[in-house]
Structures are given as C-alpha cells and as structure tokens.
Amino acid sequence: MEYISPENELVPNGTRILCCQCAVPIEANPSNMCVACLRAHVDITDGIPKQATLFFCRGCERYLQPPSEWLVCALESRELLAVCLKRLKGLNRVKLVDAGFAWTEPHSKRIKVKLTVQGEVMGGTVLQQTFIVEYVIQHQMCDACHRSEAQDYWRALVQVRQRANNRKTFYYLEQLILRHKAHVNTLGIKPNCEGLDFFYATENHARKMVDFIQSVLPIKCQQSKKLISHDIHSNIYNYKFTFSVEIVPLSKDSVVCLPKKLTQSLGSISPICLVQRVTSTLHLIDAYTGQVCDISSTQYWRYPFNPICNPKQLVEYIVMDIDILKEHEKKTFPGQGTVSNKHVIADVWVVKASELGLDISPVHTKTHLGHILKPGDTVLGYNLGESNVNDVHLEKLDRSLIPDVYLVKKHYGEKAARRRARAWKLRHMHDQPVSITDDDYNEFLDDLEEDPAMRQNINIFKDENKIPVDTDEIDPSLPRITLAEMLDDLIIEDEEMTEV
Question: Which pLDDT belongs to residue 497?
Fold first, then answer.
C-alpha cells in the first residue's frame, strides 16, 4: 500500500480542476468554485443597506451629519461623499476599494453612490463586488433655521459701536470682514445708528468675530449674559450672550491732542498729531517734525483722548509758496522717537480757497507733505486758530504750541470728476452700503485711492458698467488704482458644455 505524504500538494501547480457546482474547468482555489457560482452562493454586501436617507435643510442648504452637525456640501463633492459613506452601517466589515457618484437627475431628490468592496470568503478566497446605494433626500429644518422661524434664532450678539462723526472705520471693517470671510457663521446683520449688530447661534462663533475685530482694529470689549431658562432636573442653563465692542472714536485724517504722560512714553512726540491710519494700532505723525508713533488699544484706553478735529471740518487752502527744510534746519532733540522716511518737512504759506484774491496775507505753517506739494496746489487742512475746541488736554497746552493751520492731505480735482473716473467698485454685505451717509463712503473710496498700504487688505473689483475715463484730463497727479490691483467680478453659472 502506498501512502501519500500530507506535505505533498493534492493538486499540482498549473492543474485545472472542475467547479464543484457547475463542473466548469477553473484554476484551483480554496473554495473549489468558479467566480459565477461563488457570487451566486456568497454575497459579501449582505448587511450593508442598499437604501438610506439624507436630511437636507432648505433654509441654509446644509446636510445633517449625525448626531447634530450640519455641513455645507456641493453636489458630487468629496464632503457629500463622506457624509453618504458615514450613513452606511456594516461598511466596516468589508474593505472599501472605490466609491463614486452615479448620475441622477438634479431635481430627483435622489443620490446614487457606486461602491466597490472586497471581502474574504470560504477559506481565504477574496471576492470583489460592486453595488449601488440609493440615498433619498428628505427635508428637515436645522436648529438654527428653526430658531430663526420661531423669532428666537440667536444665542449670542456682538454689538460693534464707534462714537465718531463719520463712518469710514465701519466701511474699512466691512471690507476686511468680506476679504477674510469672517461673517460665514453670522445669522443676521442689523445696522444701528452707532454701529452694527451681529447675531450668532453659538457663543463660540461670536467670540471668533470679536477676536477678528480685535486683530484689525483697536477696540475694547465687555461681555454679559442673560438667563433665559433653567431645567432644574437636568441642571441645564440657557443663556443669551452679548459682547459689546467699542472702537476707538478716531478715524483717518483726524487731529488729536495727546495727554502729557502718553507723549512722554512715545518719545516726547508733539501733543498735537495727525491720525495717519487706523489698523490694529493707531498710527500717528507729527506734521512739524515728521516723528511717527504707534498706539496700541491698551495704551489708548489707559490714557483715552478724543479728536479735536474730524474730517468733516476740513477746509481748502491754496499753497502760495513752499520751502523744503534741510536736515540741519529740522528741530531735533535727545530721545526723539522714530522719524518717517516717506514724508518731507517743509515751510508752507497758504491762503483759504474762499479768500483767494482778497488782500489777505498768507498764513505760515509747517507740513509733512513737502514731497507732493508745490505752489498752486490745493490742500485740505484744519483751521485751529479759529476753531472752538473743548478738550481737556488742549486747554493745558501753551497757546504758542497750537498752530493756526494744520495741513492734512493734498486735494485732487473735483469730487464729481473723480467719481466719474472711478472704474472700480467694492462689494458689500448687503445690496446697499452699511452707512446711510454717502459722503462718508465717497471719502473712504478717496482714501483707498490715495493710500496704497490701506488698499492692500481690501478686495477691489473692476466695474464693467463704467466707461474708462482718462484721469490725465482731470489731473495728471491724480492717484489711481491700476488694473493689476483689481479683481474680476466673476459670476459663476452652470452652463451646458457644447462641442466645438
């Protein structure tokens, strides 16, 4: 009798056997079955549902990801595919090889996902199978939309206020919010006589907005909360939070009088300074010496001060003569702070534009605009000698330290001509600008044209509705925004693809 060693292979390599079900010659495998019979007897997708439900909120157009998260997903996007796969139970028992969307009618409320999975059956045989799962979209209102319909939609409120005479700071803040998309979680925005109100569904979203405003503007924030309801059985408290944000009452081109202690800590700068720019800090410049300094929000609220003149009080002056000061003629002192390299100090003699031609002697003053002014130019400034200013810090100064005229910026052409030549525009959070004062908005646009550093943080779009105007005909020195700084105002629409 011949014994067969168990180490020997029963079926040599390359030998074909018959399928135990249909007797078709096949390669040897642990199940001794062909692929067709194996698929007929074994289903690796058993336990994976072929139909599922997706919940969609028509108010905010978001999909529900259980248990309580709502996500914004475009059709046939990776985010929507991830939500669909998470809705399937039993998918962890097999290996997912491929997943993709199958085409359905856009308005059929059906989404089909084609899945390819692999599973091990009958002694180590790996079987691959492809199937389609159909998702039915059902409408369900999310918590935020539900509270909005019930007129109890917000849980946190951010009140942004500025007690100033113009609204240019709010226009600047609006453009920063649009550029960085800081308003994506906002439920509603309500204009107020002194500012804006931002409504949010959670406290965390409101805190993010407060942190964003604090990073771009000098502010002071106070928080309060109000108890709405209390469940004594589960010890759950329901609060409404309010964040009161106050922006410093200063804007670009305002003149301020600094407290004595603050001037000493800023390199003994002159008390009367001009606000160059308002960002996360206040940028000031002394027009008589060219010294500049930055004041943080902490320093401002420790030594608060108000503007003694605002941009609405600017007066037009005509430059009669100008004399650039040389380096040895500039007044310097030990311990002087940083001096600006972009400005040139000059002696200038000016006359009011309304008094031009009368027998009136020019007024002498100093200015930091020596690099752009020449005789015959029009310049805007404040008439401090004839102004009635009530300021505690200004009253303590010696009268000889207060100039009669404080020049601020050069005036370019007529306002109406500049507006016609403006071939660009800005976007807004609403169809109309936030402020109801058109003059403030146009002054903000003028500041963008004159200050390149300011418009670096703002998205500027080409205005296709305006015909380009040659600005050289208005004023060759008129500041302009080049096409390289403008963005195309694109409107993306779904169009059917056509063959060329």
Answer: 35
pLDDT value of residue 399 = 84
What span, in angstroms and rounded, lies between the C-alpha atoms of 277 and 290? Answer: 15
Q: Can you say how many angstroms the Cα of residue 342 is from the centroid of all Cα atoms in its chain? A: 29
The residue that leads in pLDDT, 11 or 168, is 168
Is residue 407 very low, low, confident or very high in pLDDT (cuts 50, 70, 90)? very high
Q: Torsion over CA of 9, 10, 16 and 22, rounded to 10 degrees?
A: -140
Minimum mean pLDDT among 306-315, 316-325, 352-361: which range? 352-361
Q: What is the pLDDT of residue 14?
A: 58
Tell me the pTM.
Answer: 0.68
8 Å CB contact between 175 and 426: yes
Question: Distance between CA 252 and CA 278 in Å, rounded?
Answer: 6
Residue 195 burial by Cβ neighbours in a 10 Å radius (0-12, 13-18, 19+): buried
Residue 214 backbone phi and psi in degrees, to 5: -65, -25
Cα 424 to Cα 484: distance, rounded to the nearest angstrom: 12
Cβ neighbors of 59 (< 8 A, separation 6 or more) are: 141, 142, 144, 145, 148, 149
187, two tokens: 């439920």
DSSP for 244-271, please give it: EEEE-S--TT-EEE--HHHHHHTTS--S
Query: Are 143 and 150 in contact, with CB atoms under 8 Å apart?
Result: no
Please say whether the beta carbons of 404 and 365 come within 8 A.
yes
Which residues lie below 8 Å from residue 217, measured CB to CB, with a gap of 6+? Answer: 169, 173, 247, 248, 278, 279, 280
Query: Mapping DSSP to helix (H, G, I), strand (E, B) and coil, where does residue 79 land?
Result: helix
